[in-house]
Specification:
The protein is α/β, with parallel strands linked by helices. The protein has helices spanning about 45-50, 75, 95-105, 110-125, 140-150, 170-185, 195-200, 220-225, 240-250, and strands at about 5-15, 20-30, 35, 60-65, 65-70, 80-85, 155-160, 190, 205-210, 215-220. The strands form two sheets. It has a six-stranded mixed beta sheet with strand order 6-7-8-3-9-10, sandwiched between helices.
Length: about 260
């Protein structure tokens, strides 16, 4: 793909006898809001860890912004933002201390770091919590701080692993507006989320991974067209939801005939 922000070829990661990600090949165009979906344990977080340099692939290659990406690609890493699984915050710092540390680590000068820290604290509604240690934050507050740290340096590529988990509806609306603004300015966003309604609202393209393998990849309309003939309800031009597409592709696991719990039947 021309002008690909993210490109992988045969990306594979094994943990001993377990193959967590197998032969994943995909391209994400610059300026695209890309959703990466899959059931629990499908390989989503492992893929993000490889794409952000937290895990070395067992096999395959990766390119970010058209350049080979690996553990030593420090210049490329400065153009990436990430909210990883588990967030990995420094709990014994305050929010301003943490953001200033992250900004300086990304190479921002002290003045710019201070200015962006104050702006982000206000935007994320954390300004009144500036004296509190991060370890004392609620889960939602920690998630907002992790998002602030991921964008303080103005990344060209942003990886988000479940960014809306534990975030209240008001903050989620603000974050959606922020992410849409980043896309309008040409950034690329790679999003994983189990909230398919959010993915459907935000993303233009989606890939689905199942048991470590890529099983679908394309625009939402392409996926709808591909699944329309297989699902009841698509007749008569009814528009399939992303949830219906997802369940059709990965399989609902025989939900209709699943055994019931004896004490709840």
């Amino acid at each position: 793909m021309e002008n690909a922000a993210i490109q992988t070829h045969g990306l594979t990661r094994r943990f001993g006898a377990l193959t967590a990600v197998e032969n994943v090949t995909l391209s994400v165009a610059q300026g695209q809001f890309f959703g990466f979906l899959g059931p629990n344990g499908a390989g989503k977080s492992t893929t993000i860890k490889m794409l952000t340099g937290l895990l070395e692939p067992t096999a395959g290659t990766m390119e970010i912004l058209g350049q080979p990406f690996g553990a030593g690609a420090l210049d490329l890493k400065r153009q990436i933002g990430v909210v990883p699984e588990g967030m990995a915050l420094l709990g014994r710092l305050t929010a301003p201390e943490y953001l200033q540390f992250v900004g300086r680590m990304y190479g921002l000068d002290a003045k710019t770091t201070r200015e962006r820290t104050e702006e982000l604290l206000e935007f994320m509604q954390l300004a009144e919590e500036r004296r509190k240690l991060v370890t004392d934050f609620s889960h939602g507050m920690q998630k907002k701080l992790a998002l602030a740290a991921a964008v303080i340096h103005g990344p060209k590529v942003l990886f988000l692993d479940e960014p809306f988990e534990g975030v209240d509806a008001i903050a989620a609306g603000m974050l959606k507006t922020m992410l849409a603004g980043m896309i309008s300015r040409g950034a690329t966003i790679f999003l994983t989320s189990h909230v398919l309604e959010i993915v459907e609202r935000l993303c233009s393209h989606v890939a689905i991974i199942h048991q470590g393998r890529l099983v679908a990849n394309g625009s939402l309309e392409e996926l709808r067209a591909g699944e329309a003939s297989t699902l009841p309800g698509a007749e008569g031009g009814q528009r399939l939801t992303l949830e219906e597409i997802f369940l059709s592709i990965v399989g609902a696991g025989g939900m209709e005939s699943a055994q019931e719990l004896s004490w709840l039947a």
